[in-house]
Every structure is written in structure tokens, then in C-alpha cells.
Request: fold
Amino acid sequence: DNTGVEYYGTIFAAVESPFEEDLIWTGSDDGLVYLTKDGGENWTNVTPKKMPEWMLINCIEIDPFTAGGAYIVGTKYKSGDYSPYIYKTKDYGKTWTLITNGIAPEHFTRALRSDPKRTGLLYAGTENGMYISFDDGSNWNPFQLNLPIVPITDLTIKNDNLIAATQGRSFWLIDDLTPLHQINKSLIAKDNFIYKPMDSYRMSASRRKSKTAGQNHPGGVLINYFVKNVEENDTISLSFYETSGKHIKTFSSIPDADQKEEKLTVEKGANQFNWNMQYPDAEKIKGMILWWASLRGPKALPGDYTVKLRKNGILNSEQTFTLLKDPRSSASEEDLKSQFDFIIEIQEKLTETHKTLKNITKIKNQVKQLKSSITDKEKNKEIIDLADKIVKDLTKHENELYQTKSKSNQDPLNFPIKLNNKLAHLNSLSSIGDFRPTDQSIEFKNEVIKLIDNELEKVYSIFENDVKLLNKKVKQSNIDLINLN
Reply:
């Protein structure tokens, strides 16, 4: 208490062991460490004999791997001593060892936590930032990363995340400590590898970024991987698979557009990628205007998946991971599966429709080129008439499948939406939340798909009959498609 009421004799740290019943450690601001093994009936002074006097014991951490093991963190900056002080014991305080090698001389210590998933993995918070040790404090290294140079007043570990409280009135969090649990000499000897991803909840991420508040977890699955060297022409890819081996999606440093690969940003050394758990989108058409509609694929279901790392097509590393059901969701596994299958069916029909629309556009462009190549219009009137009929018929069905008059985002207010927009709107609605499709949604989907199939059937008939006939007549006519003036 800096008001002058109490200067000394105040307990600053008190920790009950979660591993041994009735074992409690305390530390005070006058440099004393006490221990009780019987729930406070009897106390023993176990203060380190070589520790400077009047040390403020700021933090006590129980060793999760050693019975009778503990760490104490002290400060003497109020006395003008800015040295770091961390002591550890393995025998209930009978003997202590100072473990500060590697911490800067004036980075006095405030907090320490022992990682419960790996023996000897320690995190220390000092007046000037963070440190890490992999050998139980024998050696420390800076662990600053993007953390500002700021006093770390306390640390805690929750669900394999490290949380730091700072004297800058902030909380900072490392989302995933599991790479630190796995890293070892044999692993880092490899050129390229993936750390086993931590289990992730199947939940939507917060997409908004605040300029004044903290940043939320990105959501999805965090994939930590290492690439020793990356040359300009190297292709590095991450591919995701179901347990059955079915391919879901690939992200690549040099994406293959034909395979619908998405961009992966890769740097030499450590990398982190966040998979948003989404299956591939339906086929897209550049410039297509849709009203309140989604072509987005469904979110992966809870369960096990595999991620594979390849360099220049060669498999280097693979790991399995698990998607966990959002504990806040009341949906059953059957509900989620029903929603997933429903969206997949919509996606497949949208993809078929949009591929057909692309082929219609391609045929219309080729017909235009054909007609411009015909110099003798009278001689080739039959070909021209057939070509015009094909364009007319295809345009009729094209306009039923898609509102071709829409050229801007506001045009759907002026022109009625067509079949593909209706189906894509249903996809947008059905993707909200974790709910099975309603009976009305199923009925509407079946109705729209029936209408789409009716149009597609007629388009396919034109492809199969009229277009093939046109090709045959063009070949027989010996029309030169390239004319030089």
C-alpha cells in the first residue's frame, strides 16, 4: 500500500497446488516464502537462503510435472535493484536455484507460467517484455514477437493460448501454443513440415475489425507450418481432405485456376494459415449481378480432417486435426449434416447452371465470329439462318436462367430476378446459423431446380443437335474463319 499504511508483511502471492491436497505456497513483500502441507495448520519458512533481503514476491507458479516443484518471481526495483529474480525448487523449498540466464540485466521479472503440456516450457513476463525457456529456466530467450516493449504484470494459459496482462492497460494473446509443444531438434531438421493443428471449434469468426478495441480470434483452423527455403518459382500448397480422402480445397503460392486453387502467401521460415472451414464456392461468372444471393460453399462438419503440405507437387508433410461442434449450438449432428447436404445440392446445381451459361456465351461469341467470316451471305444463307436460330433459342433460355439485363448492383430493383438468383438466395438463407432446412426451403429448392432442369434440358438439346449440325454444315462449306483483307 503506497499510502503509507502498510509497507511490509503483506502477502502478495498465494497459490494452492492443484496437484497435491492441502499444499499452499505464499510470498510476501518483505521477501519471505512460506509453505504449508496441511491446509494452513502449520507453516514452514522456505525462503531461498541466497535470495536478497526485502524481495517482493510477485508471483508463485506450481510445477505441473514435479511433486514439490515451484517457481517464485521477485522484484526489488523499489530499492533501485532492477535485476531479474526467478527461483525454482524441486523439493518443497528445501533447495532453490536462480534461473535467469539469458534475461537482460535490467529486465526485472514480474510473472512466470509453466506450460502444462510440455515439461520445462516456461514463459516469463518482465518489465520490458516476454521471455521463453525450453529447458526449465536454465536458458531464456526473448519472446517478444509483435508485442510492444511493455511491462507484463501477469500471465495465464487457457486452452493452449497464452494471455498476457500489460501495464499498458491491454491484454495480449497468442492464439495457439501447440507448435511450442511439438518443436524439437528432429522436427526442425526437416526442410518443410506442418505442426499438428490444435482442435478448433466450428464457429463463425468476427469479420469486423475495431480501431479502438481488441482483435478477435480469426476463427477457423490455424495451420502452423515451416518452409526452409522458398524460391520465386517454387509452388507451395496446403490441401485439405476429408477422412475418406475426398479433396476439399487447395491453397497454393502459385494457384492453378483450372483446379480452382486459392492464393496462399508463403514466406521463408515459419508461416501461419487460417482455414475458414468453407467448402469450394459454386461456379462464378465474371460480372454476374445477383441480388441477396450467395455462391459460397457450406462449412465443414464437425469431425476429423487432414491437411497436406506439398512443395513443387511433392508431399512433404501431413497432419490430422479435429473440428469441434460449437458448444453454444443446439443443432444436432443430423441437423448439421442435413444443412450441409442441402447446400451442397444447391451448389452443384448452381455450378451446372453457370457452366452452361458460360458455354452459351462462348457459342454466341463463336457464332458472331463465324458470321463475320462469311463473305458470300447468299450462298451460306442456310448456315446463317441456323446460326441465328441457335443464338435466338439460347438467348431465350439464358434469360430464364439469369437476368442478363442486370449490369449494376441496383439493376435487380428494375428487372426481376431469375432462376439462378432464386436458388442462390436460398443458399444465402440456408447458410445462416446451424439449422436443418425447413420443409418450405426443401419444397422451394425442388421447385426451382425442376424449372432450371427444364431450361437446361432444352439448352443441352440445342448443344447436341443444332450446334453439332451447324459445325457439320460449316465444315462442308469450307468457310474460311480467318480472312485477310
